[in-house]
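Operator note (shift B, R.M.): manual run for Ribonuclease M5 requested after the automated queue skipped it. Running by hand, logging everything below so the morning shift can see what happened. Input copied straight from the record, untouched. If output looks odd, do not overwrite the archive copy; leave it for review.
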Amino acid sequence: MKKKIKEVIVVEGKTDTAIIQKLFDADTIETHGLALTEETLDFIEEMNKTKGVILLTDPDYPGMKIRNMIMKRIPHVKQAFVDKKDAIGKKKLGIAEAREEAIIQALENVVSFSQNTQSISWEEFISLDIIGDKQKRLMIYDLFHLGYGNAKTLFKRLNMAGITKEDILEQLKNI
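Run finished. Output pasted below as returned.
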């Protein structure tokens, strides 16, 4: 019996929909990659009001661009991230190429961002010694299921997710 997801999952294409529906009892909306139209954005916004929406785009530049377009319209939309390392196929990078366990984990660890909180200051962020340490940065992205990005994006997402310096130190201590 497949697990039911009540929210509508926003994906980039047909193959993403196929894999989601193989793993879950869930509805999807396809953006057709970067060909995301105003009509589709309107529909996503409407679905977010009625059922809720989860963004699950490819862990690449176009996927990030689609995410940002939708977040401009719906700032508090729920998000699921599959790690780049778990989404590499033979010739492509994406949700359709991702390991099934990685997709399941992403949808079981959905995060919500709020735009106007500051849970960690820039000074606290710098004191964690993340900026020059890519391994540590990637570990923090993983620990909190925040996707992938540079240090500035991590700082922004930590604040949007309400994660404090103490939360980070506590998680790092458990490793």
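Quick read of the result: Residues 1-112 form a domain with the Dna Topoisomerase Vi A Subunit; Chain: A, domain 2 fold (CATH 3.40.1360.10). The chain has two domains: 1-112, 117-175.
Leaving this for review. - R.M.
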